[in-house]
Amino acid sequence: xxxxxxWSEPDPAPYDGQVIDAKExxxxxxxxxxxxRRRLLPYRDALNDVAAYxxxxxxxxxxxxxxxETRRLIKQKYGIDHDPANLAxxxxxxxxxxAHVLAGESAAAGRTEVVDPGGDLIAAxxxxxxx
Length: 131
Hints:
Blueprint: H1 22-30, H2 32-40, H3 50-55, H4 58-78, H5 94-108, H6 121-130
Helix pairs in contact: 1-2, 1-4, 2-4, 4-5, 5-6
């Protein structure tokens, strides 16, 4: 009979599981367009309307947020972003995704204005949600 493994360490911190690891970065770098499509297609309406984004459950907003932060990292480290010269490029520009998420999260928090602090978007949104 197989034994069940139990968690013997302290509870993970709230940020655990939110850190984007090297494997996820590598997948996004190698297949940015297909990965974006798989991650964001279910949220198409929410990515076109701030109010629809704000109405999503937090878990769904977290899924979008995680991809947007991954996009920031691959843009920063590898220069991968939307190619404006390619009219068929399905990638949404990383800066536009970021601005939409910030606007949606501020709407979800009942704020009318939020300043983009730059850097880690996951940490910025966590701070916005706490305030």
